[in-house]
Each structure stands twice: as structure tokens, then as C-alpha cells.
């Protein structure tokens, strides 16, 4: 009888590192009777990946046939199959659909899930929003919008529906997430090989967060570029290129107090009913964590100025990827850079001045911003003038803007 070992994450618990380890140890796993199909080749290079659960997720969402699911994961001669993806945070209906499939094909299942402390979950989720979703709100603004208990909520659902499940405390094993996974599978870790020390999908540090937000805001004008497209381009580059940069965790005292009031009793109840059974203890925060940077509401969002080295690095990336952005978005980037990075602003203008600018778009955008940011309007009208120097209306508006300055 085949057995499925299903690793479901959760998000921000070292899944990309574990999946990279699995992808680079397929021969050793096969020698021990385990099959791990590589469906995302990014994992081989220890880059951000989504694991190998895409077809299973597609099946659960009715976008993949049962035959395709079997051919993808269960057609080999191996008795043990590993599927890993943090996108498999399943609700009750998906769990039951999977259980029905496994029952029809006489496949056993063991679920493995990593949990983490509550504040760490919140902070990592917030930074992930900056990285992958184009989030520009402050951490204070996000404290009432992000559910820091989503791991615990999902664990409760799994426990109510799945008998064979193993929880692992990520914060206890984050230095080596593969070791407890091997133990859960009954494998000899030394026979498979240790996880590579390279960090995968690391958290951005404060300087990087500020730069990502800056470029997202500069390049997202009238939603012409989805914020997430911009942030993913930049953050993936930073994370995959500078893998060993250390990241801090900013602990905001008022947020911690809020979480303590809201969740302490729930955490205690979870630990007594479920955590104790699995040998784990979820905390609000491990105050001995050396990454912690304690702060208060007055300086959490303090602007210390954008890091010039990171700005230059990201600027080069954006210019190399400029086909992703239109001239108006680049014009807005030039404006954003103009005060603190005039040299980079000039480089943007040198580029867009050598292409065919759409004077009508620039003119209309300038007019639309008159009641919001007159400086911005004047800048865009100047660019319209470059494209159409003899434009009567454009020249008239430029004179008006100049008179307003005086």
C-alpha cells in the first residue's frame, strides 16, 4: 500500500528551504524508498519555490483530473510519496475531497505541518506582504488586518478531520528544518544528508523593506502596474541574490500588548489540548530570540533615509526590466528619485527622453493631479513638453505652474 507524506507548510515556516533540500536529495530519498517529484526547478538552486504540490492543489480546486493526479505523483514503484507545498492550507471541503481520493486508491496519508510563535508569524506575514503583495502600509496599520493565529486556526481544522498528523515547532528547528522532517518520516538523517546552510526566501531587513516600498509607490501610478508585480520583481532579486543578509524582527510593544490580550487564552488552550500531544509549546514571542529589535510606536516607522547601496542595486534591476513599465511609470520613478537621488533621476529621464513619449497621456495625467500634487503635475507637463514642444495648451499650463511657484 502506498503512503502519502503531505507537508502543508504553513506559510513562513521554512517551506522553501525544506523543498530545496528535498529537491537536491531525490537520489538519497529514492534509495530509502521515498519519491519526491521536482515540479519547480527553482528549488534545485535554493531559490524561492512553491514545492511540488501544484497538481494536487489543482485537483482540489477542480482544475486537474484524477488521472493526472495519479500520473503525476503515484505512478512510480515507490511506496512512499512526498508532496510539499505551503499553498495546501486546506479547508474542510478540500480535506474531505483528498481523503475520498486516497480511500478510492488505497493510499494512506500522514500530514506534517510546521507551526511558529504568534508574533513571529505576524511579522513574517507582514514582510511577506511587502515582498510579494506590494504592501506599503506600516506595521502598525497592518496589526489589525493580519491574522497572527492563522497557523493555529488551520491546525485546529486539521486536527478535527485528520487522524494521522504531526506538528513541528518551526522556531525550535529553524536552524535545520529538515532534521525533524526526517524524523517524522522515519528516515536516518545522516543517510539522506544535511540541509544546505544557504537561506531560502529569507525575510527582508528594515532597509530593504523601505526600499521595496519606495519603488512600489513610485512605479504604481493609477494602478498601471500591479503593486505585487513590482514588489515581487524587486524582493525576489534581493532575496535570491543576497541570501546571507541577516534580518531583524521589530517588536512593537503596543502590538504585542494587543496580541497578548486577544490571544493568550487561545494559545494556552491550544498548547494544553494539541501542543502537549505533539511535544510543542506555542508562545506569543520568544523573548530570547537574538534577532529581536524592541521598539515603540514612536520610532517603529522612523525614516532614517533610504539605503543608497540598495537603491542603486534595485534601480539597476528596474532599468534592466524597464520593458515591464510604461513611460509614465518611469516618469513617476524619476520624480520620486529627484530629491535624494538626482543622478538616478537623470538616468531615467535620459532613457525616456530617447523614446516616443505619449504627450497626451502625460498631459492628461498632469491635469488629473493638479488638485493633489501640483509639483507632480508640473513635472509631468514638462515631460509632455519634451514630447510636444510646440503644444499650445501644454506651454500655457507650464507657464501657469511656473507662476504658481512664485
UniProtKB/TrEMBL annotation:
Gene3D superfamilies: P-loop containing nucleotide triphosphate hydrolases (3.40.50.300). SUPFAM superfamilies: P-loop containing nucleoside triphosphate hydrolases (SSF52540). InterPro entries: P-loop_NTPase (IPR027417). This is Uncharacterized protein. The lineage of its organism: Bacteria, Pseudomonadati, Pseudomonadota, Gammaproteobacteria, Alteromonadales.
Amino acid at each position: 500500500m502506498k503512503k502519502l507524506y503531505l507537508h502543508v507548510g504553513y506559510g513562513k515556516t521554512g517551506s522553501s528551504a525544506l523543498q530545496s533540500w528535498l529537491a537536491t536529495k531525490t537520489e538519497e530519498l529514492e534509495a530509502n524508498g521515498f519519491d519526491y517529484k521536482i515540479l519547480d526547478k527553482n528549488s534545485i538552486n535554493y531559490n524561492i519555490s512553491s514545492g511540488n504540490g501544484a497538481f494536487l492543489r489543482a485537483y482540489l480546486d477542480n482544475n486537474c483530473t484524477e488521472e493526472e493526479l495519479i500520473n503525476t505523483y503515484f505512478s512510480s514503484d515507490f511506496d512512499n510519496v512526498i508532496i510539499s507545498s505551503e499553498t495546501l492550507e486546506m479547508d474542510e471541503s478540500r480535506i474531505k475531497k483528498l481523503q475520498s481520493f486516497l480511500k478510492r486508491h488505497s493510499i494512506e496519508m500522514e500530514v506534517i505541518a510546521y507551526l511558529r510563535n504568534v508574533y513571529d508569524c505576524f511579522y513574517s506575514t507582514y514582510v511577506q506582504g511587502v515582498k510579494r503583495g506590494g504592501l506599503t502600509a506600516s506595521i502598525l496599520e497592518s496589526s489589525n488586518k493580519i491574522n497572527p493565529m492563522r497557523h493555529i486556526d488551520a491546525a485546529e481544522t486539521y486536527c478535527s478531520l485528520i487522524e494521522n498528523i504531526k506538528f513541528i515547532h518551526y522556531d525550535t528547528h529553524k536552524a535545520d528544518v529538515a532534521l525533524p522532517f526526517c524524523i517524522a518520516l522515519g528516515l536516518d538523517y545522516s543517510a539522506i544528508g544535511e540541509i544546505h546552510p544557504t537561506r531560502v526566501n529569507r525575510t527582508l531587513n528594515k532597509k530593504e523593506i523601505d526600499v521595496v516600498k519606495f519603488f512600489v509607490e513610485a512605479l504604481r501610478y493609477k494602478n498601471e502596474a500591479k503593486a505585487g508585480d513590482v514588489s515581487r520583481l524587486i524582493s525576489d532579486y534581493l532575496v535570491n541574490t543576497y541570501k546571507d543578509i541577516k534580518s531583524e524582527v521589530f517588536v512593537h510593544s503596543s502590538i504585542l500588548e494587543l496580541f497578548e490580550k486577544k490571544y493568550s487564552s487561545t494559545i494556552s488552550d491550544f498548547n494544553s489540548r494539541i501542543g502537549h500531544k505533539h511535544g510543542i509549546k506555542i508562545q506569543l514571542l520568544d523573548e530570547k530570540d537574538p534577532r529581536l529589535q524592541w521598539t515603540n510606536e514612536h520610532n517603529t516607522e522612523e525614516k532614517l533615509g533610504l539605503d543608497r547601496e540598495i537603491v542603486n542595486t534595485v534601480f539597476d534591476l528596474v532599468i534592466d526590466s524597464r520593458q515591464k513599465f510604461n513611460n509614465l511609470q518611469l516618469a513617476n520613478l524619476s520624480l520620486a528619485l529627484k530629491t535624494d537621488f538626482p543622478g538616478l533621476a537623470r538616468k531615467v529621464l535620459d532613457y525616456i527622453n530617447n523614446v516616443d513619449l505619449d504627450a497626451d497621456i502625460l498631459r492628461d495625467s498632469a491635469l488629473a493631479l493638479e488638485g493633489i500634487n501640483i509639483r507632480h503635475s508640473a513635472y509631468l507637463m514638462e515631460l509632455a513638453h519634451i514630447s510636444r514642444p510646440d503644444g499650445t495648451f501644454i506651454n500655457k499650463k507650464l507657464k501657469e505652474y511656473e507662476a504658481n511657484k512664485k
